[in-house]
Amino acid sequence: MRQILDFSAQRPWWILGLLFLVTAAAVTQVGKVEVRVAADDLLVIDDPERRYAELVKERYGDQKVVLVYLEDAHILDPEKLKAVSGVIDSLEGRGFVERVESLFSVPWLKSVEGYLDKSPYLAEIPQTREEADRILRAALDNTFIRNVLLTDDGKGMGLAVILADGVSGADDKRITRVIEQEIAPLRDHYLRSFAIGFPQIRHEITQSIASEQGDLFPLALLALLVALFAILRKVLDVALPVLTASLSVVWILGLMGWLGIHLNVVTSIVPILMVVVGSTEDIHLLAEFRRGWRKRIEPRRALDNMARKMGRTVLFTFITTFVGFLSVGLSRIDVLWQFGLLAAAGLLLNFLITITLIPAVLALAVRQREAPRGGRRLSGDGENLAQGFWDMLRRGRAPVLLALAAVAALAVAGATRIEVNHNPVDSLAEHSEAKRYIERINQRLSGLETFSVVIDSGIQDTFLKARYLEEVVEIQAFLEEQGVARATTSFADYLALLNAAFQELDEPRLPSSDDIVNELMIFLDYDRVADYVAEDYSEARILVRHNVASTAELRRFVGELQGFIDEQLDSGLEARISGDSVLTLSATNAMIYGQLQSIGLLLLFIVLVISLLFTDLRAGLLAALPNVFPVLVLFGFMGYAEIPLNIGTTMAAAIAIGIAVDDTMHFMLRYNQELKFYKSQSQAVVHTIRGEALPVIATSLALIGGFLVFATSDFEPIRQFGLLSAVVIGAALVADFLLTPLAVSTLRLVTLWDLLSMRVRTEVIGKSCLFRGMSDRQIKRFILSSTLLEFKAGERVFGIGEPSEEVYMVMAGGVEVRVPRRGATDCDMVVDRFSSGQLFGEVAMLAGETRKGNAITLEQTTLLVLNREGIENAVRRYPLIASKLFLNMATDISHRWVRFIKRASNNEICAPAMEDSRDD
Amino acid sequence: MIEGNTVKAGKGMAGRILALSPLILALMAPAWTQAQDTDFRAPLTGEKVVAYELELPVGRVEKRVFEIPEDCHDVLRAHAEGAASWGSQVVKSMWWKVESDCRYYTFLNRYPGIPDLQDHVSRYDFRNANLAELPIGDECGKRPLPPYACPNSYLGTGDVVQILPQDDGSRPEQGFSREGCALQQGAFRGWVRLDGDGIRCQPDERAPGVRVVSVDLADVNGDGFQDAILRMIPLGPRMGRVTAVLPVTRKGEDQPFFIPKVEAEQAGQ
């Protein structure tokens, strides 16, 4: 990573040229991006239920219908009906219309002098209100009409425009426009008239998506600009993140155009998301650069410093964010899968742009010898502020942790109230015309939601037997008893109508014997019932229309139906519930599972990466802690704010955590770096806070602002996604400043890199007297609980009178321990000299005394520091290892004592006195 | 008129009427010239037609389009040869209907074109008749059936008595009368008592009933007297769907109706 950053800084024009070429190529593809909306996108990929539903559709037909709804106090007035008749004729003349089902076409099965009359209800236009009422009453007896084409009160009527085969989403705009034109005359006759169907819904969504790209994109850029300028106040620092974000958008749109990937409700947020999240790494890189720049170090070194310090960090933060996005792609729901892959690809492109463009532009900028004035100090110099904050946090550790725990507990309680909603209609905006129409249809008619109960015997002519038809009717009766299904239709219903017509009954009644069924079948046109029964009558289908919007209610309803079927259905029959509603439930399950899976996997990934990075599982778990907290807050917020888990909100947690963990990573990695320079963990925390506060706050505020842009979306799930993501980032910010410092301060982090450097010193450790007789694993336990400290030549490791809490092992370099001689001013007594692999400082520590000598480095020295706590832990947890350790220490002290006596006898223990040691 | 309605059928149909084949073939013997038109319920639609067309299986794979009534001769022959044993239950029902229609048509046209028929029935309004004036239960209602006169036995149709909604004795006697048996626009709804005193009825609009679906005029026994053939169906739930055929005639305008005798040899018995 560092090499890439360095390369980009060294060859800025090459990089800019390359970026320009790729961008130009992307621009040529952007125009190919289409908006395409398909209901299937919301379903589960490779769902067995979906395959079965397709089979049912194949078998029983899959009509594409646009419903023209008319409402008035007297819907069958002659003038009105003439207008309707004209509209139907006109619609049926359109190529995209197969036919129009209405009271003008649905047969009114009745007996006229003993012969069947199937002329439609409105074969003749009624001339009086009485006549109209008689027709309405008769039509309401027909289950194929009641709540399907006619409202219960007879004041609302539907015209089902059946679209011709071959009509596709590409025709939506034309169909919507033409039908609107055709039904326009009905507005003069009916109080309410509108057309609604998939073409209208898709057309509205498509228009909204296109419009949102125009509205939200500039808004997101504006939010980013405002956030960046408020924090950074430096043109270049503001312009660069905006530039990388903009290029990312062009690249991802170009990629979509090139690969033929369409925009839909969910994937449409990817370009805007790039603007929102595409600037975070830029801010951290710029912060590090400006830090060096402010210290007035040579510009080239400032860039090098940025590459050295941030290269690894941005790589890891990119990986976690990338995995966050990718985890959404693990979903089995088509649209989420598309989103996850697309967003992850977008993020990768953004990362590539960031790590090349930022150093390249900065390299060019520093060539202009830009003065380091103006602008906010990104990394901040507020050491006092950081110290004050840390002191306050440390003092208030208990109340802070308690408060966070209380918030988490409250959130967990709220999370239990979360409902799942996967109703595609809820995706539509509140002010959506289509949504209003759908709600009206749901309220007045049986609703647009459907599912089927398919009952199979596997035996020909089963459903020509009265007893099996009764089974069908019993299921229908159960459905109606539940009060959820407002219209259920079946083959039995048609037979009941036919039977009533022949027997001149007052109401439809199922034939009472097989003989009657067989005779009725003579007069039954199979095409009329092809939607409800197989051609060999071995299988029957009940079509259930309902208006249940709540997924929870639908789940309960379908569950109860399945229970009834399992208990009551004849053992010779098998029934299966299928159709759009069931697929919605299936998708809901997939969504819940996907949500848990992506959060779980992401947290696991974070734990693993950080554990590996710091070679300490505790580090991974601690890093997860400030990211679990926002998840809890998210779910609690959803529960209390009654925001359901839906296609939008299901993405929020994984994406937001993927982004939010970046701050934790920045915090931990910097803490690890600071630990190498500061002996005290507290000091390291203070410097970490000081160094990361502003970039973390800046990126968080930019992200919150960006995500809140989505809150202006027309689509409810996207709006909720934006709001929830902002909440998560906010909660993560709080957790990063309260939880992360408290958590990491309990650890001395050893990175993998540190460990790798130790491997280089295997010889040192292997030959060390301290670890003699210990296995690699036992040695590693000590190594991981220790810290490496770097000292320059002549630097003091400890001094007389200081508490003796640590034991030191020389990894590289050399150390001398001296004791000032009483009365002597020219030289100190050299107690001993220590080189690679040797141990010192243990005498005072084991004696529990303060330091009696000064430890001074003789050259650039690296020391491995084992503290008392670590040793005591080892005594408690690993007594065997501890016994070896103490034996080794005792042996070492004995050898040194022998050596000291020899040197004393040879008068080799004098060294030039140190001034500061005199002071001590 | 509906022509061209086609049912595509698959396999065969049971031969429950197969046993009557010799009789049927005997009945269809007369010439078809100047045939008496009659109304049929068209398959699939149930509408009133005088002719219809239907494709039916006549073998395992062979099918044939029959035009009814023109092809009734072929229908009855094919049926007699077991063609109705192919196809599904629905196809068998279709075969049953076609064969019934053809037998009825044949029954009407046994003596076509007899000149100078004495007609004492055509001016009678059977659709508004009183059931008590018709020979219901007189002969065909009695058991055992006489060897002649009851066309139901060879037409495969039901007896009128069988389709009448008969009272189970739970209703008060005073509610029943002969006057109550009047048909209105071809239909009677109510309860019927049939005993030694003849037929008495209690009208009830909500009760089951019977409907006269057609009144055909023909000389079914070639005796030179015009006969009226009433086809009646039951109305109301849980009533069978059997069509009853009641041929009636009389010797004078003021004479009572009776069932024209079809001699045993004429009936093939």
Write up what this structure looks like:
- The complex is a heterodimer of chains A (920) and B (269).
- Chain A has 920 residues and is an alpha+beta fold.
- Chain A contains 32 helices and 19 strands.
- Chain A has a 5-stranded antiparallel beta sheet, covered by helices on one side. A 4-stranded antiparallel beta sheet of chain A has the order 2-5-1-6, sandwiched between helices.
- The relative contact order of chain A is 0.09.
- Chain B is of the alpha+beta class.
- Chain B has 2 domains: 18-108, no CATH class; 126-248, no CATH class.
- Chain B is 17% helix and 20% strand.
- In chain B, strand 5 and strand 6 form a beta hairpin.
- Classes of the chains: A alpha+beta (920), B alpha+beta (269).
The number of E-state strands of chain B comes to 9
Mean pLDDT of chain B: 78
Largest interface: A-B, 33 and 34 residues
> Tell me, what's the shape of chain B?
globular
Helix fraction of chain A, binned, reads 55-70%
The CATH class of the largest domain in chain A, by name, is Mainly Alpha
Q: Mean pLDDT of chain A, nearest integer?
A: 83
Poorly predicted parts of chain A: 371-380, 916-920
Number of continuous helical runs of chain B: 5
CATH fold-level assignment of the largest domain in chain A:
Multidrug efflux transporter AcrB transmembrane fold
CATH architecture of the largest domain in chain A: Up-down Bundle
Distance between the termini of chain A: 47 Å
- Basic shape of chain A: elongated
Structural class of chain A: alpha+beta
Main sheet properties of chain B: 5 strands, antiparallel
